[in-house]
Amino acid sequence: MSQPLPPRDPRQVSSSPTIPKPGAARPREFDVADLFRGPSTVADSSIPMATVPLDDKFRQAYYWIVNHAIITPYYDIEFNEAAPRSFRFGGAGTDVRLPTAASFSSFVLLPLLTFAGRKKALFVGGPGRGKTASSLLMGILAGYSLKDMRRAMQHGQPQMTVSDLLGSPLPKDLIQADDMEKIRIGWRQWIKMRVKIVDEYNRIPTRTQSALLTLMSDGYAEVLGQTVESPESAWFLTANDDAGGGTYQVIEALKDRIDVVIKALNFNPRFLGDLLTRIEDGVKPEALVPDEIKFTEQELNETYAQILKVPVPRGVRRRLEFFAAQFDFCDLAAQEVEYKSKDTIHLAGKTLSATCANDCGRDKVKCLCSQTENGLSVRSLMTLLTFTKTLAWFRGNPEVTPDDVRQIAPFVLHEKLQINPTSPFFDQQSAQIFRVDRIAWLRKAWELSCEEFVRLNLDREDPVAELDEDFDKGLEGVPMAVVEKQVTKIETHLGKIAKNSKLYAHVQADVLKLKYYHQRYSNYRRWLALQG
Amino acid sequence: MPTLAPSFTRDWLATRREELNGRFRIAKRRSPSLDPQAVLDLCAQLLPALGGTGEEGAADLLSAAYDLILLHAGRGTLTRNGGSNPAVPVLFRETFPSLRPLLLSRPRFLPGALSNAAENLGARGEEFARRIVAVGGRLERGNDLPDAVALVAWRLGEARLRVEALKGAGRLPAAAVLEALQLGDWPPEAASLAVAGLEADGWRRPDDAISESTVESLSKASPRKLEDLRKALSTPPRAGLGEWEPAGRVGDFSGFGGGFDEPPLLLAAPETTRHRFWALAANGAFRIEADIWGWSCRPDPAAAGLGVSEAKPRGIVSSILFGGDDGAPRLDADGTLSFGGESRKVAGAKSATSSIAAADAVAWTIADSHRIRILVPRTPAL
User: Fold this and answer.
1) Do residues A344 and A334 touch, judged by C-beta distance below 8 A?
2) Which residues of A411-422 are buried (b: 16+ CB within 10 A; e: fewer)?
């Protein structure tokens, strides 16, 4: 009954469902609003529109942005249902694949995932690549007007003070107040917004960066002892230089708070015609965002709740554990198993590259541990988990898949894992490019990790899985005989591992967990003995 | 070159010149055949009646009308002398100017919604555009217009709208309801009775459900009498099998505007009601909504997995095998209709290729027709 708007009309929103699923072919229930839908736009937010599932609404927003707002003809986040056709190009040797499932442009997808998952994104890339425009669109999707978003956007500049950023005391109170607590602060409106934009954050002076850090990491701002809380929000920062360079050095703690790095890709000149149309028609996409793809606060809260509910199945979680274990481990860092971490090396004032130059009995081309200077922080892992859930949710999948991790991990870990350029891995002819292309390197690292995981048959032969299951049931009421059995099992496992394997990174993680279980069970055994 | 007399519309066009020109350019890319002169002529012809003296909402109304002119002129559905869709010129020349006071309350929504509704009604769009003027004349608030549109569209045969349209009727003034149901000469007291009757039985016209003499007495009837009538009309019809009559023949050969490429077969869908059926034909499975005003037929791929609801053979063995009278009517393959201990032969139902019964209706198909026949109980007018 309803007819879509003609293509190229900036008011056109993709029909729902955007990803038809088998079994979902039954037409949705009748909605009287269908009568009023058609080629003519009915721009009124009070129209009784059919309820579109939130993930589908996000996909509608994605497709609207790529079709009408941002010219980004890149599908660098690839998914496949069947083997893709691939074409090899000469020169440096480039493979071009044609994805067989819905694939996405990271420059549009990642801001949307950041927006949905309330994370913090950094846009990097040269001037005029659409970093600020993309951030503004996220604000408009959150229901703010273009005027409000422009007003709320913070522009980094060398003279920016804490007051410029956060707010300033009311002049009348400054004169009349006899107590600091009585000085009221005129807080800047942007602090309370659900989408926050800081343009050219690397041009903010260091002291002001510290104030920004408090707001970003702790969710509150402080001026003259007065504080104001910021709601859970999505942050979009931009920088013209991905090294974080600019007028001021960005403080490490602030960099560390950035969850994902979004690369603004260059403009493909074959799309110059589209650009010309924009100029001739005076099109300003940010002023044309259809109401159908704007989200209410309630919808955003519901979105976040839905994302958190997306399960990470054990198979995917184990692959992630295996992958994460690779980077922090260094057998040469310490004598005790607990301290065999790259942190130990850094605390001693050394570098991984220097330590790794010594022989540890491992193949340093094959072992991922040699490739990075550092390991993954808890914050990075939490961010990675949230983004994988958000991506799976966005794709309309019931649970996270290894492909979700493969595609999202490089963007999350881009600034988190520091490459060890002296690793023999990067000396291989085919791997030299990874010293420059971090996205490809991280994707490759995930693939190598998964290959090793499969080679070791860890899906089926996980020495800790059975103990995990038993321990998850709790210790309360477990009889002494069972505890004895568990302790013996742990000791047997440890003996077997020590006999059959070197202390590889994933082995260290297993060993530490087994030691943890051993301690928990033996403490409980002592307690049971005391109870008589 | 068309000229406009000094007016709010002329000022509005002048002050928004750049923006409106930009919108024209976008429309031109969408529809390369869009003729600038034709758009200018249409603006001169149609906009002044909507701009008025610039009351609140007039600017938004002009803006919406301008976009509609661009859209329809680009598609050829509106030209200086008519257009390919007869409903569209009527909308611009009659409906919008007449309903202007209502449109001003939601100017960004109502013009586009009316235009879409007229297009969605296809061949009935022109009649819709005229009828909504009469109904709109009985409304005081623009916010009531969507409910009135739904009611008029349903009355014109958009059967899918039945439930929602009747629900919306409860929010409309009585005079508007009666006008929409084409009962404009009935007294206002009849509106809720007509709606109650249609809610209970969509196969009975209000003038079949309420006798002429009863209608005449309504303006003097006591509230209690009105309530008794409403209750009686709200009761689903019950009648002996002798009173069951053909209520409708729905669906058709696809070449005549129907949905079926070949004679359809009714499907055993548990959600079947006296107004909703599922059918299978060579071109797929369909969901059919039908009532006294019309029928609609939509593809429903998910129904393709349902089994055909076959007419059962008649006889004692069949009764044992397929069950007897279980509270629903039953149509056997020999055309015998059984219900409540009664049975009768139904003309035209012999050799039914499929049949299905709801609580108070039975439907069947035959091998040489693209239509589904429906039989329902008839009760005398009150």
Assistant:
1) yes
2) bbbbbbbebbeb
Q: Cβ separation of B68 and A40 shorter than 8 Å?
A: yes
Tell me the per-residue pLDDT of A489-516, one tens digit each, with 9 for 90 and over.
999 999 999 998 889 999 999 999 999 9
Q: By the 8 A CB rule, do A373 and A422 touch?
A: no
Instruction: Dig out the tokens for B195 from the structure.
Output: 């709606």
Rounded-to-integer distance, Cα A366 and Cα A164, Å? 51
- Cα B305 from Cα A25, distance rounded (Å): 12
Helices (H), A282-431: 297-309, 314-328, 342-347, 352-356, 378-394, 402-413
Q: What percent of chain B has pLDDT over 70?
A: 92
Residue B320 half-sphere exposure toward CB, CA atoms < 13 A: 2
Q: In the numeric block, which tokens belong to residue A320?
A: 């992630």
Q: How far is the C-alpha of B263 from the C-alpha of B230, rounded, in Å?
A: 40
Whether chain B has a CB inside 8 Å of the CB on A41: the answer is yes
CA distance A139 to A145: 8
CB contacts under 8 A, B 140-169 vs A, are 146, 149-150, 153, 158, 160-161, 164-165, 168
**Contact residues for A170 (Cβ-Cβ < 8 A; gap 6+):** A183, A184, A185, A186
What does the alpha-carbon distance between residue B263 and residue B253 come to, in Å, rounded to a whole number? 8
Where helices occur in B137-250 by DSSP H, the ranges are: 145-155, 162-169, 174-180, 190-200, 206-209, 212-217, 223-234
**One-letter identity of residue B60:** D
Bridge partners (DSSP) listed for residue B296: B289
Res B326: pLDDT? 54
Question: Torsion angle, CA of A435/A436/A442/A447, rounded to 10 degrees?
Answer: -70
Complex ipTM: 0.71
- Residues facing residue A306 across a β-bridge: none
Q: What is the pLDDT of residues A209-264, one digit of tens each?
A: 998 999 998 888 888 888 889 999 999 999 876 554 567 788 888 888 999 999 88
pLDDT band of A4, cuts 50, 70, 90: very low
